[in-house]
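Field reference: sequence -> structure
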Amino acid sequence: MKAVNLDAVNLNPQWLSYWAIYGCLCTFESLLGGLILWLPLYYEAKFCFLIWLQAPQFKGSVLIFDSAMKATFGSQKARSLKNTPMKSASHRDSEVLNKATEFLQVHSPEMYHALSKESKSSAPRLY
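Structure field:
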């Protein structure tokens, strides 16, 4: 719940709220597992509901999170997620790639040597 309310620019509020709602739905299903089997077309309705939550055109997860989840669970920062700015995916991907490249440039030689020593010592002799 706290992650959805953060002011971080690079978080996707639709997916964070989707997973919060999905977690509540799974909890509800596990508590009422046997009774749900008796509801006609439950799984078809659940499928349509999940598609509606995920579709970026509808932003169903944000609507439900803003209206029902915040009222139920409360929040310290009650702010709408509909207009939260978000970095483009390509910008986030390039940031991740840059960080990974920096990490590998610093740590890859020592990791390579450690792995090669370990593989030589633990490799079975076939001759």
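Note: The two ends are 59 Å apart (CA to CA).
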